[in-house]
Amino acid sequence: MHAFHGTPLVRTSRPHPLRRFAGVAAASLFVLSLTACQDGTGLKDGGAASASGSAAEATGGPATTAAPSTAPTSAPATAPATKTSAAPSAPSAPSAPSGAGERVLCNGSTTRVTAQPVSRPLNHMLITVKNIGSKTCDLTYHPVLRFDEMQWVPAARPETRPQAVVSLAPGEEGYAGVLLSAADGSGEGGTTGHRLTIAFQGRTPLSDGGASATPDLPAAGVAYDSSLTVTYWQRGSADALGS
Protein backbone atom coordinates (compact mmCIF):
# COMPACT_ATOMS: atom_id res chain seq x y z
CA MET A 1 0.00 0.00 0.00
CA HIS A 2 1.00 3.48 -0.71
CA ALA A 3 0.34 6.09 1.85
CA PHE A 4 -0.80 9.55 0.89
CA HIS A 5 0.78 12.45 2.66
CA GLY A 6 -0.58 16.00 2.89
CA THR A 7 -4.02 17.13 2.08
CA PRO A 8 -6.20 14.22 1.48
CA LEU A 9 -7.57 13.97 -1.99
CA VAL A 10 -11.30 14.66 -2.15
CA ARG A 11 -13.12 13.17 -5.14
CA THR A 12 -15.61 15.61 -6.64
CA SER A 13 -18.56 13.88 -8.30
CA ARG A 14 -19.78 15.45 -11.48
CA PRO A 15 -23.40 15.12 -12.49
CA HIS A 16 -24.15 12.86 -15.33
CA PRO A 17 -24.88 14.72 -18.57
CA LEU A 18 -28.40 13.26 -18.82
CA ARG A 19 -29.28 14.34 -15.32
CA ARG A 20 -28.03 17.85 -16.11
CA PHE A 21 -30.31 17.96 -19.17
CA ALA A 22 -33.31 16.76 -17.17
CA GLY A 23 -32.79 19.45 -14.59
CA VAL A 24 -32.57 22.15 -17.22
CA ALA A 25 -35.74 20.85 -18.88
CA ALA A 26 -37.64 20.82 -15.60
CA ALA A 27 -36.59 24.39 -14.88
CA SER A 28 -37.68 25.44 -18.32
CA LEU A 29 -41.08 23.86 -17.85
CA PHE A 30 -41.47 25.59 -14.51
CA VAL A 31 -40.70 28.95 -16.08
CA LEU A 32 -43.18 28.30 -18.91
CA SER A 33 -45.87 27.37 -16.39
CA LEU A 34 -45.34 30.58 -14.49
CA THR A 35 -45.55 32.54 -17.73
CA ALA A 36 -48.81 30.80 -18.70
CA CYS A 37 -50.39 31.59 -15.36
CA GLN A 38 -49.45 35.24 -15.75
CA ASP A 39 -50.81 35.98 -19.25
CA GLY A 40 -53.53 33.30 -19.62
CA THR A 41 -51.88 31.52 -22.56
CA GLY A 42 -49.66 28.57 -23.05
CA LEU A 43 -49.67 25.44 -20.94
CA LYS A 44 -52.52 24.60 -18.57
CA ASP A 45 -52.86 22.66 -15.36
CA GLY A 46 -53.02 18.93 -16.01
CA GLY A 47 -55.74 18.46 -13.34
CA ALA A 48 -59.49 17.81 -13.98
CA ALA A 49 -61.00 20.48 -16.24
CA SER A 50 -64.28 22.06 -15.23
CA ALA A 51 -67.37 21.20 -17.28
CA SER A 52 -67.90 24.81 -18.15
CA GLY A 53 -64.35 25.16 -19.47
CA SER A 54 -64.75 22.06 -21.64
CA ALA A 55 -68.01 23.34 -23.04
CA ALA A 56 -66.42 26.69 -23.83
CA GLU A 57 -63.57 25.04 -25.70
CA ALA A 58 -65.97 22.82 -27.66
CA THR A 59 -68.23 25.68 -28.77
CA GLY A 60 -65.62 28.38 -28.99
CA GLY A 61 -67.64 30.56 -26.58
CA PRO A 62 -66.90 31.80 -23.06
CA ALA A 63 -67.35 29.44 -20.13
CA THR A 64 -70.48 29.97 -18.05
CA THR A 65 -70.05 30.07 -14.32
CA ALA A 66 -72.98 28.53 -12.39
CA ALA A 67 -74.53 30.65 -9.66
CA PRO A 68 -73.61 29.49 -6.14
CA SER A 69 -76.22 27.22 -4.56
CA THR A 70 -76.29 29.39 -1.46
CA ALA A 71 -77.72 32.39 -3.33
CA PRO A 72 -81.17 33.27 -2.00
CA THR A 73 -84.01 32.22 -4.30
CA SER A 74 -86.49 35.00 -4.83
CA ALA A 75 -90.16 34.11 -5.04
CA PRO A 76 -91.68 34.54 -8.48
CA ALA A 77 -93.41 37.84 -8.85
CA THR A 78 -97.15 37.57 -8.92
CA ALA A 79 -98.74 39.62 -11.67
CA PRO A 80 -101.62 41.71 -10.43
CA ALA A 81 -104.98 40.29 -11.45
CA THR A 82 -106.41 42.02 -14.48
CA LYS A 83 -109.90 43.27 -13.92
CA THR A 84 -112.04 42.34 -16.88
CA SER A 85 -115.35 43.89 -17.59
CA ALA A 86 -118.19 41.67 -18.75
CA ALA A 87 -119.17 42.25 -22.36
CA PRO A 88 -122.40 44.18 -22.63
CA SER A 89 -125.25 41.81 -23.23
CA ALA A 90 -127.25 42.13 -26.41
CA PRO A 91 -130.63 43.73 -25.97
CA SER A 92 -133.31 41.17 -25.49
CA ALA A 93 -135.87 40.61 -28.21
CA PRO A 94 -139.15 42.37 -27.66
CA SER A 95 -141.75 40.27 -25.99
CA ALA A 96 -144.19 38.61 -28.31
CA PRO A 97 -147.73 39.91 -27.99
CA SER A 98 -150.16 37.81 -26.05
CA GLY A 99 -151.45 34.90 -28.13
CA ALA A 100 -148.69 35.18 -30.78
CA GLY A 101 -147.14 31.89 -31.79
CA GLU A 102 -150.23 29.96 -30.71
CA ARG A 103 -151.82 29.69 -34.13
CA VAL A 104 -152.78 26.22 -35.27
CA LEU A 105 -154.25 24.69 -38.39
CA CYS A 106 -157.98 24.45 -38.78
CA ASN A 107 -159.01 20.82 -39.22
CA GLY A 108 -161.59 18.30 -38.14
CA SER A 109 -160.37 18.32 -34.52
CA THR A 110 -160.50 22.08 -33.98
CA THR A 111 -163.62 23.01 -35.96
CA ARG A 112 -167.23 22.03 -36.57
CA VAL A 113 -167.98 21.52 -40.26
CA THR A 114 -171.29 21.54 -42.10
CA ALA A 115 -172.11 21.01 -45.79
CA GLN A 116 -175.45 22.28 -47.04
CA PRO A 117 -176.81 22.46 -50.66
CA VAL A 118 -178.22 25.92 -51.47
CA SER A 119 -180.94 27.04 -53.86
CA ARG A 120 -178.94 30.00 -55.23
CA PRO A 121 -176.79 29.82 -57.14
CA LEU A 122 -178.12 26.69 -58.74
CA ASN A 123 -176.35 23.38 -58.15
CA HIS A 124 -174.14 24.76 -55.38
CA MET A 125 -173.30 23.63 -51.86
CA LEU A 126 -171.89 25.74 -49.01
CA ILE A 127 -169.27 24.37 -46.64
CA THR A 128 -169.06 26.16 -43.28
CA VAL A 129 -166.18 25.75 -40.83
CA LYS A 130 -166.49 27.15 -37.28
CA ASN A 131 -163.49 27.35 -34.94
CA ILE A 132 -164.52 25.60 -31.72
CA GLY A 133 -161.00 25.56 -30.25
CA SER A 134 -159.29 27.99 -27.87
CA LYS A 135 -156.65 29.17 -30.35
CA THR A 136 -156.73 31.02 -33.65
CA CYS A 137 -156.57 28.58 -36.55
CA ASP A 138 -155.68 28.99 -40.21
CA LEU A 139 -157.68 27.71 -43.17
CA THR A 140 -155.00 27.09 -45.80
CA TYR A 141 -155.61 26.78 -49.55
CA HIS A 142 -158.88 24.97 -50.26
CA PRO A 143 -160.82 21.94 -49.01
CA VAL A 144 -160.07 18.58 -50.63
CA LEU A 145 -163.39 16.83 -51.29
CA ARG A 146 -164.22 13.19 -51.69
CA PHE A 147 -167.70 11.75 -52.13
CA ASP A 148 -167.98 8.11 -51.14
CA GLU A 149 -165.16 6.19 -52.87
CA MET A 150 -164.46 8.81 -55.53
CA GLN A 151 -161.09 8.23 -57.24
CA TRP A 152 -160.41 11.80 -58.36
CA VAL A 153 -159.93 15.14 -56.64
CA PRO A 154 -162.15 18.09 -57.60
CA ALA A 155 -160.19 21.08 -58.86
CA ALA A 156 -160.10 24.46 -57.09
CA ARG A 157 -161.13 27.55 -59.04
CA PRO A 158 -157.98 29.72 -59.19
CA GLU A 159 -159.87 33.00 -59.50
CA THR A 160 -161.22 32.51 -55.97
CA ARG A 161 -157.83 32.44 -54.27
CA PRO A 162 -157.75 35.11 -51.49
CA GLN A 163 -154.93 37.58 -50.91
CA ALA A 164 -154.16 36.16 -47.46
CA VAL A 165 -154.75 33.01 -45.47
CA VAL A 166 -158.13 32.97 -43.77
CA SER A 167 -157.59 32.91 -40.01
CA LEU A 168 -160.38 32.14 -37.58
CA ALA A 169 -160.38 33.35 -34.01
CA PRO A 170 -162.27 31.10 -31.57
CA GLY A 171 -165.96 31.19 -32.55
CA GLU A 172 -165.39 32.61 -36.05
CA GLU A 173 -166.43 30.93 -39.30
CA GLY A 174 -164.89 30.39 -42.72
CA TYR A 175 -166.51 29.21 -45.96
CA ALA A 176 -165.98 27.40 -49.28
CA GLY A 177 -168.42 27.03 -52.18
CA VAL A 178 -168.89 23.82 -54.21
CA LEU A 179 -170.18 23.72 -57.77
CA LEU A 180 -171.86 20.29 -57.91
CA SER A 181 -172.79 20.11 -61.59
CA ALA A 182 -172.95 22.27 -64.70
CA ALA A 183 -176.22 24.20 -65.03
CA ASP A 184 -176.32 23.53 -68.79
CA GLY A 185 -175.96 19.77 -68.35
CA SER A 186 -172.56 19.65 -70.02
CA GLY A 187 -171.04 17.61 -67.20
CA GLU A 188 -170.54 13.87 -67.47
CA GLY A 189 -170.79 10.88 -65.16
CA GLY A 190 -173.54 12.27 -62.99
CA THR A 191 -174.03 10.37 -59.71
CA THR A 192 -175.28 10.88 -56.17
CA GLY A 193 -172.97 11.03 -53.19
CA HIS A 194 -174.12 9.94 -49.74
CA ARG A 195 -170.96 10.46 -47.75
CA LEU A 196 -168.59 13.42 -47.92
CA THR A 197 -165.04 13.58 -46.53
CA ILE A 198 -163.33 16.99 -46.31
CA ALA A 199 -159.55 17.00 -45.91
CA PHE A 200 -157.61 20.07 -44.71
CA GLN A 201 -154.25 21.12 -46.10
CA GLY A 202 -151.10 22.05 -44.17
CA ARG A 203 -148.66 24.90 -44.69
CA THR A 204 -147.66 23.62 -48.13
CA PRO A 205 -150.05 22.71 -50.96
CA LEU A 206 -151.74 19.31 -50.59
CA SER A 207 -149.79 18.53 -47.41
CA ASP A 208 -151.56 16.90 -44.47
CA GLY A 209 -153.32 19.47 -42.30
CA GLY A 210 -154.60 17.10 -39.67
CA ALA A 211 -157.88 15.37 -38.98
CA SER A 212 -160.48 15.29 -41.72
CA ALA A 213 -164.16 16.10 -41.29
CA THR A 214 -167.23 14.11 -42.39
CA PRO A 215 -170.19 16.46 -42.27
CA ASP A 216 -173.72 15.08 -42.58
CA LEU A 217 -175.44 15.19 -45.98
CA PRO A 218 -179.14 15.26 -46.77
CA ALA A 219 -180.75 11.84 -46.54
CA ALA A 220 -181.33 11.84 -50.30
CA GLY A 221 -177.68 12.51 -50.91
CA VAL A 222 -176.08 15.12 -53.15
CA ALA A 223 -176.00 14.87 -56.97
CA TYR A 224 -172.79 15.84 -58.77
CA ASP A 225 -170.98 15.22 -62.06
CA SER A 226 -167.60 15.83 -63.71
CA SER A 227 -168.10 19.61 -63.38
CA LEU A 228 -167.50 19.33 -59.61
CA THR A 229 -165.17 22.16 -58.47
CA VAL A 230 -164.52 24.00 -55.21
CA THR A 231 -163.43 27.49 -54.16
CA TYR A 232 -160.56 28.47 -51.89
CA TRP A 233 -161.44 29.18 -48.27
CA GLN A 234 -163.18 32.54 -47.92
CA ARG A 235 -163.95 34.95 -45.11
CA GLY A 236 -167.62 35.39 -46.05
CA SER A 237 -170.32 33.07 -47.41
CA ALA A 238 -171.14 35.50 -50.26
CA ASP A 239 -167.56 35.28 -51.55
CA ALA A 240 -167.70 31.49 -51.37
CA LEU A 241 -170.91 31.31 -53.42
CA GLY A 242 -169.95 34.11 -55.83
CA SER A 243 -173.07 36.12 -55.07
Summarize the structure.
By secondary structure, the chain is of the alpha+beta class. It has helices spanning 17-39, 51-59, 237-241; strands at 104-105, 111-118, 124-131, 137-139, 144-147, 155-156, 166-168, 173-179, 191-193, 196-199, 222-224, 229-230. It has a domain at 104-241.
Write the layout of secondary structure elements.
Layout: H1 17-39, H2 51-59, E1 104-105, E2 111-118, E3 124-131, E4 137-139, E5 144-147, E6 155-156, E7 166-168, E8 173-179, E9 191-193, E10 196-199, E11 222-224, E12 229-230, H3 237-241
Question: How would you sum up this structure, described in words?
Answer:
The chain is an alpha+beta fold. It has a domain at 104-241. It has three helices and twelve strands. The strands form four sheets. It has a five-stranded mixed sheet. The radius of gyration is 60 Å and the shape is globular. The model is unreliable at 1-100 (pLDDT under 50).
Rounded to an integer in angstroms, the radius of gyration calculated over CA atoms is 60 Å
Tally of individual helices: 3
Give the strand order of the largest sheet, numbering strands 1, 2, ... along the chain: 2-3-8-12-6
Mean pLDDT: 73
The share of residues in extended strands comes to 15-25%
Terminal CA distance reads 185 Å
| Low-pLDDT residue spans | 1-100
Largest sheet: 5 strands, mixed
What is the general shape? globular
Keywords:
3-stranded mixed beta sheet, alpha+beta, 243 residues, 5-stranded mixed beta sheet, disordered N terminus
